[in-house]
Amino acid sequence: MNKCIFLDRDGVINRDYPDYVYTLDRFEILPGVIEAITRIKEAGFLAIVVTNQSGISKGIYTRFQMQECHDYMQQELGHQIDRIYYAPWHPDQSESLSRKPSTLMFERAIARYDIDVSQSWMIGDKERDLIPAQKLGIKTIQVGGREDQLATFVEKDLLSAIARIIP
């Protein structure tokens, strides 16, 4: 079985904005992220992104624009992300079992990559990122300055979260 570090995208890998990140001029990789992803891979973990992208169903941006950002992210991170799962829906537009805090994106990854949840982690910046992981028995770390009292641990950023997992 494989061990995995699941990662939210906005607020963990790249700077988050209240009005969405869907153009390359606003897609800013946060400090320490490249080093953190490299450490994840060197330690033998899968690196899988699970991200809500509700701006698509709201008509704010397209799947193509999101894919451009994901391609850029992969390039900047040395193509070290093993898979990106995204949920393009928003509850105001349509219901979905994929959208966090539901578990379907995680379940798909677990099945596809034979992931051992007891050796895996989820790193997110919001409570809704952590809820599905906890439902599935995955340890959690919340980053980015918020503290919703739900995470197993709280760290300031992705690099310090990885330092907690991989000494």
Concise structural overview:
This protein has helices spanning 33-42, 63-76, 104-113, 127-135, 158-165, and strands spanning 4-7, 46-52, 83-87, 121-124, 139-142, 153-154.
What key phrases describe this protein's structure?
alpha/beta; Rossmann fold; single chain; 16% strand; 167 residues; six-stranded parallel beta sheet
Structural summary, described in words:
With 167 residues, the chain is of the alpha/beta class. The protein has one domain (4-145): Rossmann fold. It is built from 5 helices and 6 strands; from the N terminus they run E-H-E-H-E-H-E-H-E-E-H. Strands 3-2-1-4-5-6 form a 6-stranded parallel beta sheet, sandwiched between helices. Strand 2 (46-52), helix 2 and strand 3 (83-87) form a beta-alpha-beta unit. The mean pLDDT is 93.
Please report the number of helical segments.
5
**Tally of separate domains:** 1
Pattern of helices and strands = EHEHEHEHEEH
| Sheet/helix structural class | alpha/beta
Q: End-to-end distance, in Å?
A: 22 Å
Task: Name the overall outline.
Answer: globular
Look at the structure and name the CATH superfamily: HAD superfamily/HAD-like
> Mean pLDDT, nearest integer?
93
Outline the biggest β-sheet: 6 strands, parallel
Strand residue percentage: 15-25%
* Second-tier CATH architecture: 3-Layer(aba) Sandwich
Q: Give the C-level CATH assignment.
A: Alpha Beta
Overall helicity? 25-40%
How many strands? 6
CATH topology: Rossmann fold
If you compute it from the alpha carbons, what radius of gyration comes out, rounded to the nearest whole angstrom?
15 Å
